[in-house]
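Most newcomers find our protein records easier to grasp once they have seen one. The structure tokens are whole numbers drawn from a learned vocabulary of backbone shapes. The record below serves as our worked example for the rest of this section.
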Amino acid sequence: MANFIVSYDLNGPSPSHKEVDDLLESLGATRGRILETVWYVGWNGSCETLANAVNGILSANDQFVVVEAREMFWRNLLITDESLRESWVANEPANA
């Protein structure tokens, strides 16, 4: 598994933030909203596959980025530091 950061700006009525969360859940990804429109995602697939899945529900006016993250530092996020730390460590590749 790898750790990803997914960030998006929704510029229309659809999809909603809940629909993005539901999509990530349907993929079986470990996830947590760390800032308003920034998600931590622990994912077993590739960056491209995750990006294609997110892009598939966005409107043409929405913006997004998916980044595979190897290292991260944080403070005062929307999820607890401990839950992020546990997920991050659990999803680090074995060869990291």
